[in-house]
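Hi all, posting the design record for the shared folder.

TITLE: backbone redesign
STEP: 1 of 1
STRUCTURE INPUT:
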C-alpha cells in the first residue's frame, strides 16, 4: 500500500514538473526574443536598426499601420466602397469628407462627383441632381470622363442643361484676389414642434462683399427647399424658420451669402449636406385601449368617460350557499359611462 501511494505521489510530481516546463520555456524564449529585438538587428550595409522596445525608440508592431489606416483619405475610401457596391456606406463617408474645412476645390469636385454617382445608382434622383448642381457651381465646365457609363453621362447632361437654363444658380465666385467670407453659425441640436427656429449667422466679411444672406429650409428630407432672406445688421444675419415648417422628425436648412451679382461667396451647408435639426415628438398622455362591445375607448383621451369603481361590501351569508367559516362575500360594482 505504501509503495502504491509513493508511486502515485511521484506520478503527480512528474506531471506538475512537466506542466511547469511547458509554461516557463515559451515565456523564457519570448523574453529572450524580446531582448534581442530590443537590442536591434543589423541591417544591410552595416547600419543598426533598433527593434521594438529597444533603445532606438521604435514603435510597437502594428501601431504604424493603425496610424496609416486612420489617416486614409476619405475620398479614396468612398471610391473603394462605391466600387464594392456599398453605396450607402460610400455616401456616409463622402458626407463626412464634404464638411472638412481643409478641402480644396478639386477635392470638393471629386466628392460631389462620387456623391452623384452613388445617388444615380440608387435611383435617388433629387439628391443626385443636388450633387451635380453642387459640382457645377464649383466647376461649371466640368465634364465626366469619356469612358464613364452612359447612364451617368446622360444624367449629368440633363442636369447641366436645366441648371444653365435657370441662369446657373448657386455659382460660386472664388476669386483668390478677394478676401474670403466666412459664415459662422451654431445650429440648434433640437427644436420643439410648431415652434419657430431662430437662425443667426455671424459674417466674417473683411472685403464687404456680402450683399444678401439666404436661408433655404424644408420639413423632412425630401421636399423642395424654400427660401428666406435674412436681415443683416452688425455683421450678423438673422431669420426665423416658420413654426408651421417645424414638424417631426427633422428640419433641414443651409445658409448662403451672396454678393451684389448673386454669386455665392460664403455658405454653411448645401442642398446635398444640409444642416439638420431634430424635432421632438409632441408629448401625449398615456392611453389604455379598452374594448367594449366592439368599440375601443381610450382612458387617457376621455378621462372620466370610463369610470371603474370597486365597492367591496362584506356581508354574512344569509340564506344561499353556506360559506366556509372565516370567509365573506365581496361585491364589485363596475360603472361604465359611454359617450356618443
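Okay, here is what came back for every position:
SEQUENCE:
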Amino acid at each position: 500500500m505504501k509503495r502504491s501511494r509513493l508511486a502515485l505521489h511521484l506520478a503527480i510530481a512528474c506531471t506538475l514538473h512537466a506542466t511547469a516546463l511547458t509554461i516557463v520555456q515559451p515565456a523564457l524564449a519570448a523574453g529572450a526574443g524580446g531582448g534581442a529585438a530590443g537590442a536591434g538587428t543589423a541591417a544591410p550595409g552595416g547600419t543598426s536598426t533598433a527593434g521594438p522596445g529597444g533603445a532606438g525608440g521604435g514603435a510597437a508592431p502594428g501601431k504604424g499601420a493603425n496610424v496609416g489606416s486612420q489617416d486614409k483619405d476619405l475620398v479614396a475610401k468612398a471610391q473603394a466602397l462605391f466600387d464594392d457596391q456599398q453605396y450607402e456606406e460610400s455616401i456616409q463617408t463622402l458626407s463626412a469628407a464634404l464638411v472638412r474645412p481643409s478641402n480644396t476645390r478639386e477635392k470638393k469636385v471629386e466628392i460631389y462627383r462620387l456623391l452623384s454617382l452613388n445617388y444615380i445608382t440608387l435611383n435617388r434622383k433629387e439628391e443626385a441632381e443636388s450633387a451635380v448642381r453642387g459640382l457645377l457651381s464649383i466647376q461649371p465646365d466640368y465634364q465626366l470622363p469619356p469612358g464613364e457609363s452612359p447612364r451617368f453621362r446622360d444624367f449629368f447632361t440633363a442636369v447641366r442643361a436645366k441648371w444653365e437654363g435657370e441662369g446657373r444658380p448657386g455659382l460660386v465666385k472664388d476669386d483668390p484676389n478677394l478676401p474670403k467670407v466666412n459664415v459662422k453659425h451654431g445650429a440648434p441640436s433640437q427644436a420643439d414642434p410648431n415652434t419657430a427656429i431662430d437662425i443667426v449667422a455671424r459674417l466674417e466679411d473683411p472685403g464687404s462683399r456680402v450683399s444678401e444672406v439666404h436661408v433655404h429650409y424644408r420639413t423632412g428630407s425630401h421636399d423642395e427647399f424654400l427660401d428666406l432672406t435674412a436681415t443683416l445688421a452688425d455683421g450678423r444675419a438673422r431669420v426665423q424658420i416658420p413654426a408651421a415648417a417645424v414638424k417631426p422628425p427633422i428640419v433641414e436648412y443651409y445658409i448662403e451669402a451672396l454678393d451684389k451679382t448673386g454669386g455665392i461667396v460664403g455658405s454653411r451647408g448645401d442642398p446635398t449636406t444640409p444642416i439638420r435639426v431634430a424635432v421632438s415628438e409632441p408629448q401625449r398622455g398615456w392611453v389604455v385601449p379598452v374594448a367594449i362591445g366592439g368599440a375601443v375607448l381610450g382612458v387617457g383621451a376621455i378621462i372620466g368617460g370610463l369610470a371603474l369603481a370597486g365597492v367591496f361590501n362584506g356581508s354574512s351569508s344569509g340564506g344561499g350557499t353556506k360559506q366556509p367559516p372565516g370567509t365573506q362575500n365581496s361585491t364589485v360594482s363596475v360603472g361604465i359611462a359611454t359617450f356618443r
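COMMENT: The mean pLDDT is 73.
Let me know if anyone wants the other runs.
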